[in-house]
Structures are given as structure tokens and as C-alpha cells.
Prior knowledge:
- Helices cover 4% and strands 41% of the residues.
- It is mostly beta strands and 749 residues long.
Amino acid sequence: MAPEMPHNKIINFQKKYRQMMKTKNMLWMSALLALLAGCSQGELGTDDAPGKGAGKEIRLVFSGGGESQEYTRAIASESENQIDNLDIYVFAATADGGDYQYLETWKAAAQDDTAAKTFKLSGAGTARKASIFPTELKGIPNLKLYCVANSTTLYKADGDPIDPLVAVKTNAATGAIETAGTKATDFEKYCTAKLEPAGTALGTPLVMTGSGTTKILGNIATVSIELKRRVSRFDIDNESAKTGLIIESVALGNGRNQATVMPGTLAELSGPDLANLIKYPVTEGSYLMLPKANQGVTESALYTYPLKDTDEAFLIIKGKYQNPMQKDPVPVEYHLDIQRVPDGGGAAAFMDVAPNTRYTLHIKEVMEATITAFFEIVDWTSGGGVIVKPDNAAPVVTALNVEGTDTDVATKEISVTADGTEKVITLTATASGKVQPKFSTTTGWDIDWLEHDDASYKSEVVDGVTTTTMTFKYTLTAATPYVPVTLTLANESASQDESVYTTLAIVPPATAPVLDFATPDAATGNFNLYDQANGKLTMYKTSKSSITLGASCPFGTKLALSNQLPWLEVSKSKSGPAPSTTGTPATDVSVSTPVEEYYTLMLKDVTATSDANSKFEIINLGDATQTLELTVELLDPAITTIELTGTTGGAAYNNYKITDVPRTDGSTVEVKITSPQGVTASTLSSWFTIAETAAFTRTTPTDATGSQTFTLTVKDTVTDFTTAPIVLKNNISGMEDVTVLVSAAAVAP
């Protein structure tokens, strides 16, 4: 099994990688602008003369960002780079950075046509070129160009198309503005088409936008504009052969129904605006139509509008899960919060989902009720995706000392001891950047036993190589189960690709499984017990006799019945009974580690007998020599004795009959009953009552039986002394009621 990340739903950022990417982009863009500035018109493939009756030429060079960088694999698909249409909205202002107002719109077409304000878009993908000839108005020479691809209609926040844009007009002589145009600040608030829950999911071609400013000082000006997608992309990494999960559809919950066309700061929604959070539309089974569905990384599984952390958005994954313990797969639905652990550590929290960014959900472990996964944020570029790994990306362990002994640095499994004293592991690793350890375990188990203080790590750089020394401390108690910890060494300067991680395992001593047991409520009638001190189960021989034990072991367990126990049947589940509330707390056994499996033992034969060889084992699957042996003792649940005590007034008991009860008003007879767990008594007699007068007690706590006393009382003014029964109900479930017939003394002559 591949090492897991230390938390569900986690994202790790590489700051140095981001900085490097930004630096390379800036350098490339500067070089591009310098190149373009030095080119002649012929070199750019245009005629020397601008169009007749039009303004001076503005040449636009479009990029999708990152094309000059080297990547390990293609990321953006051809359809994600597709431009079906492109509109250029031109705004003008008196000064650079001033109050830009709408001037006119240019649209891509088959041919340049300045009269119709159309232009021919050349190139492919997002690497495109175009020329426009904006109208020149005196007084407003500074231009700002808003480029919108694949969205011919702009919308208001309420989903309605925008009103026609108002063009600015100036006085031809003075340059003074005579008619104010639509302001750029208002334009930047316009939105994409509104997504409806019952509509069609977001798909290609994707809305892309970019902007740039210029001022024509000569005949030609060149503007470089980077087109960026206004949606986010989610990829899903799931191998059904490993996880058992077959994803059939992926949707978004608490998603925004639209985005602003131009980038801006997402506002937190409140009040009526919360209605803008919707469940995204999805076609059942649509995921299965995607390439490599459930066979690794499935790209472009879902597109979403940008999200804010306060939206508390989540992915909705529906499909089927094949439980190894079951014959047929079962329908499942998981809601995965889009969360990450803050850079400084702490609890996972909802995060922003940015446009033009790719989020990969890595699914690591699946059960019918839960799913373990983490998010990774990566670039989504037209030229590819993950930057080529730098030299020495994977940390190299150069020194390892375990509990005072130098250990082979090539080891991948570090064994530690448990004797109640503090132990130390010191590890030194080198890489091109600082090495950061990450810790993970089997789901549900704590890593608390392994102490690690990030602040104590020491790093130094020599000749471009960073050496990091880490210290881990622990104090383990013998015979207590501890989960192995996966230690992943990550180079902070390297990619997030797991292939550049160095992974080790810190393994505590294997132990026998420990058992969790909660005494059932007395009201259930199940008095079967687990005696931890003596390794024994006691079970009463009834038709409903069972006992459930929770086994705790990080490697998993199996229960092996011997041939001496043909009268027991075992079943396995992932849950057990609730702790007792009215049982005997002194017999409860609880473990501080997660219970991995619950075993229920059911008695199949009430006539069976047990002996010293009635034993079975619960085995540690990680080390078969580590076992817990238990003995099963079957107990007789029947009432032991029924007798009369105290002053009987002549009454007698024999063979489930009480005879010669005095007929005197108010006469009483004490009935003492000895049994394993007590009884309840009732009668429908018209001439006497029965009530408990001494509760069930044992002479000593270890006694197999205890006793209680009931008092039979003759009613007043009775004339009918017909023989009547007392019904004794055994508190142990599965036992038949016992009937005692009561008759009165003969009438005196």
C-alpha cells in the first residue's frame, strides 16, 4: 500500500516552486516583449499600412502562460485551449490608469474588416496573434483592452444579459468628454452565464479572459495578453483495483452559480446571496465515459466556478463500492469537503478554489461509510503541468541513529523497542532544499507516541546542498499495541510528485491483539462476560447466547476456532454494542487504541459442554506468533433451587408446587429462589399476591449464583382459593419461564 499523506483531504504547497515558476514567467514575458518591440511589420506577418479610415494598429499576442517551460506531461487538453470566439472590448482614458470608459468592441471573424470591427485570429491553441485598429478619439489616447474568449454574451449578477454598452464620445476640437461611456470598473463586474442545478454541467470550450493596456505613440503598438480560464478544474486519482471504488459521477455541492468575467476578489456570500450556492448538475454515469476512469488519474473530471473558503464547498462522489467481505458491490455516495491543512499546521480548513488552477483529488483508502483522500494544487497550463524535477529532488538519508546505535542509511524499516523508557531516533538527510518530514498511519490510529518538534530541526546549506537533521522521541510500554508510522521525507524545493519522496517506516514491537468489551445492559438479558485477567469467556447455554468482542491491532486480526468448539459460530463486523449503562462496569474492558474488527460468537448448541480445551485464538495478521488465547466456559442458566424460608404457617414446597398455604387473611409465605442472574415473579391469582422483598445478591462476588426472596401474601376476605400459578421469568434471555403452582390449605373441619 502506498504511503498516505498525514491527514484526510490535505494539500501541500511548494513555495519555492511557485516562486521559480513566477520568475521564469516574468523573464520569458520580458524577453517576448523585447523581441516584439524589435520586429518589423513584415516579421509579424502584417502589411505595412494600417487599414483605411481606421485608427493606428494594435497588435495583440496571446498566450496561455507557461509555454516556454518544460514539463513532464501534458496537462491542458486541446479542448481546454480551444478558442471558438474572441471579443476584444476597448476602453479609453485620458491618462494611464485613469477612468477608462467603453469605446468599442472588436470580434474575431474569418477576415480582417475594420469597418465591421472584426479581426482574423491566427495561430493555434492559446498561442494566438491578432491586429485591431481602434477608433481614435481626441483627449483619450490611453487604451485598455479586455479580451473575452468563448463567451459572446455577458451577464449581470442576476443572470440576465447586460444592457448594451454605452460608447464614450469626445469633442473633436477640445477632447473633452461629451458622452460618458460605460466604466471599466462596471464592466469588470459582469459575469458568465448562470449555472442552473437542473441545467448542463460546465464544459469546453471554457471561458478565458485577459487584459492589457497601451498607448499608441507611433503607428503600431504591441500588447501581450495572457488568457486565463475563468473556471477551476478537478482531476480524480482513483484506482478501483486498489480502492474497491468505481466512481460513476462527480459533482460539486455548495458551488457558485457564476463567476465574474474578469478576475477579482471573491466576496463572502451572506443573506439572500447564499442562494447562489448550488449543487452542480451532473449526468449519472458520466464519469465512466471519461478516459482512464477509475484506472488512475482521470483528467478534467469536473469544472467549477471559483469558490471562497466560506462557501464550504464539497465534492459529491457517487458510484459503487466492492467490499471484500461481500459478494456484490453496494451503491455509495461520499461528500468530500474541499479542505487543506494550513501551512503552519493545525486542523484542516476549507480553502479557496482559484480559477485557472488544477486540483487533483488523490483517493487512498475507501470503506463503505468513509473515504480517505487529499487534494493537491498544481498548475494548469497550456504547455503542460508539473515542472521538471530539480536535481537531488528526492532526499537522501546520510546518517541514522536508532536508540543510540548507528544504523544502515539504506534501511527502509526502523524497528524500535518498548520498555517504558524514553528512546530517540536521529536522522540526517540531504536535498536541494530543506527536508520536511511528514507522518501518516493506518486510518484511525494516533501518531501521538512519536514526538516530533519541527522547531528543533537543524538545516544548513553547503555548496547548494541542504542538510537537515531531525530528532524523534518516544516512550513505549511493553505489550501495548502501537501503530507503525510512515515517515515521508519531502524536499521543500521539489515537486509534489510522490516519486520524489523518500519513505521509511518506524515499526514498534508486534503485540498480541487487545480486546475491547462492554458489559451488556442487564435489560437485554445477555449476561455473557469477558474475564480479561483469566483470558476467559463465560456464556450461558441459551438459544440467544452470544458475546461480542472488539479486537484492536494495527495490522488487523483473524479469529481461529479449534475443532474443540463445534458449538460456536463466529461472525465479523465493523461495529459493536454500546457500552453498558446498567451492567457491571467493573467487568468492562476498554482499549485506548482503535478497534479494528468486532467478533460475535454465537452458541449453536445449548446442550454443549465446555472443558479446559475449549479455546480459540485471535491472531495478529502482521505477526502470526503474536496471539491472544481465550477459553470459553459454558454455564447452566437454570434456576438452582426454590425453597420456603422463615415461618411457613404450614405451607410446603416440592417439585414446583407450594401447598397448604394458610387461608387466613394477610398470611405470608417467604419463597427463596437461587439462580445465576435472578428472576422476576408474577401471578394472576385472585387470592394472593407475590412481591420481591429481598433483592438478588451473591454471598461473594465470585459466586456462580445468588439468591432473592419473594413474599406470597393472602388477600383479605377471599372466598375462592382456586389453585393458581406463580410465573418465574429468568433474567437470562432465551430461557423458558418456570411455573410454580400454589394451593391453599384444606378447609378446617
